[in-house]
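Protocol step 6 of 9: fold each sequence in the batch and record its structure tokens directly after the sequence line. For illustration, a two-sequence batch is reproduced in full.

Sequence one:
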Amino acid sequence: MYFGDQGKLMIEDGSIFDGIGFGYPADIAGEVVFNTGMVGYTETLTDPSYRGQILCLTYPLIGNYGVPSIEDTDEFGLPRFFESDRIQIRGLIIQDLSVVASHWSCVKTLDEWLYDQRIPGICNIDTRELTKKLRINGVMMGAISTWAVQEGVAANSEIDVRKRLSGLIKNQPYGQQNFMPEVSTSIPRVYGDKARDTLVLLDTGTKNSIIRNILRIGFRVVRLPWDSSFEEVMLHKPKGIVISNGPGDPKVCKTAIKTAGELIRASVPTLGICLGHQILALAAGADTYKLKFGHRGQNKPCIDLRSDRAYITSQNHGYGIEPKSLNGTGFKVWFSNVDDHTVEGIEHESKPIIAVQFHPEASPGPYDCIFVFDRFKELIDDFNRRSSSARTTESNNENNNNNPKVKMSAARKKKTSKEEEICQNMKQ
């Protein structure tokens, strides 16, 4: 057990929270955000969208069902309870840590898991007060120190602690960082049956559940690095493209934006999820902005403007699309957030391209919007039918143009038409 060290949390406005450290003892800094979900901390902590952030969980008791084995995989060979191969957050803030875990799948405690992955945590924090500060003032940078007891600096003055933590905060500007090299695959990876049609997944920080759902709808997945060019994507002859979720400011992903712009111009069937939603909007000429405190939780209501039906969604993002900037881009709003009316989904008016800000694959969260993957498959199938029909028509026209009998018939019709025109002129 690694629980018991002295710990301190400082946020950008100068507020200090005293707590107890657990996990790996360290000094770290990051953007402090909160998530309102009640369950699913293993999926949440391994979501690459949290890269560079210190996560505050608002549900008070965390760790009671422990941590399952990453070796527990599904029929596709993907871990059932983890969204990537490691913890992605910089640090964890909770109120009550359960040092005893009880569940049939548990192989270690939350405390042990964080230590193994070298991630510091701090508990006994008034997470309600911290969340209120973030909601009122907006997300802020923060720093955690859990070195105090082990390093023998417990006697340091409050001024020394503030100076150390303040220095950490100033040296870690979240919005300017490009986290893509940390979260994206560095080499192409293939999943599924080679006999199936291919979908390319542009990995800007993908969750395993996105891969799982692409496989579920019947495709093979080729996962490519975030900075793959349009030509590199199309080398795999994909039936469609998925641009994944991921961390940070979407405007930093310039290469992915360029690739997305070429996909739009070429009318390649494309689905954007979360960060991919923002990248597609930027590629089309729209603008994005930073939300005050973001949307992170499993109960965010959104309305499908096509059907006027509300859905409960799982979300994790800190940036959004400026609605008015969509004018003239070819995109229109598909989903809208019930709480603050932010853009939660877009669809192209004439091309097979859609995107959602929420997570249709959930994990954790409700699976109400799993149909987004099925709709994307329908768009791909419809696009392929229309493309096949166009090619057939073109081929028939070409064959007719090269057929001597058709040419002779056309010449006769032209001659007859000319004779009729002469006769009509003579009558006049």
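Sequence two, same batch, same settings:
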Amino acid sequence: MISYSNWAVISVNFLVVLSLSFAGVALSAVLYLVGAKWRFEVRQLAVSLSALFPLAFVLLIILLLGAEHTFPWIGHATHAEEVHMPGWYTLPLLATREIVGMLVVMYLSWIFIKRQAVSERSAEDADKFHRIACWIPFFYVLYCTMVAWDFEMTLKLSWHSAIYGMQNMVSNFNMFLSFLVIWIFVLNTREKLVNQVKEYIYNYLAQMMLAFTLLWMYTFFAQYLVIWYGNIGDEVDRVMGMQNGDYSVLWWSMIFLKFVIPFCTLALSKSRHTPSVILAVGVCIITGTLFERYTWISGINGTGTYPIIWGIGVSAVVAFIGFKLVGGAMHRNHLIKG
């Protein structure tokens, strides 16, 4: 029997892979819609991460097949007053919306990538690309919010937050930005790219990382403040359990890695123009996000172990498969040499 603390590692890997899969398409769509000229430097690399969708789908199926480990409320959800939205706590409905939702965003991403590749070919192609680009941000917010509710917020009966879905989405997108800037730097310095990304892109991505750091802290504190002032038993118990329980080290490290370091560093103009500094901040944000995801999933009652060896092993396997998938996609699209 795999303990819940160990199984939570698979949930975290699923959420990370899924976030990277869809965020590249979302970034490319938003940059196009706001008329950012620098999108041409990053858009092909960003959408290459959609090659991770099959891996995310396999992880989703594993989590649904092991639903009794993934969702602690299975067997306990009732129509009692303490359960928020009791109809939401049914495995068939959850499995259906998650599978259908992923298939929909996979299809939309595929259409977006195909139309982006030929968007400059003719006015008709540009118009088709514009239409699909307008839909991507809408589905990104809707889908990411649903996933956040199912795999994190509603793990504890009666716990709910009107802002948690947004906080989760902002946090994961900042992790993607951090991953993207590190990925670009590695590819550039190793001279793997057919067309190297210009150095000014690091500054642009650093500015976005700073903006999403501030937005994450805003949504995080807005939720925390309401829970603290409201002093509602179940809501306070969950947050205080994560903050002061077995995962308190991860909780406070998350605050330091995701806000204190990024804000104090990226607020300085010189730091935003220094790739090595931006990379260090990116590593902090990614690490903090992993701590955040694991704490919210495994620390729902404030108790649990630290499955370090299991976590490293599972994450290494997932990372290796993801590396092969994305590398293959980049080779097929002639983005890297060799």
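Proceed to step 7 once all outputs are recorded. Observation for sequence two: The mean pLDDT is 92.
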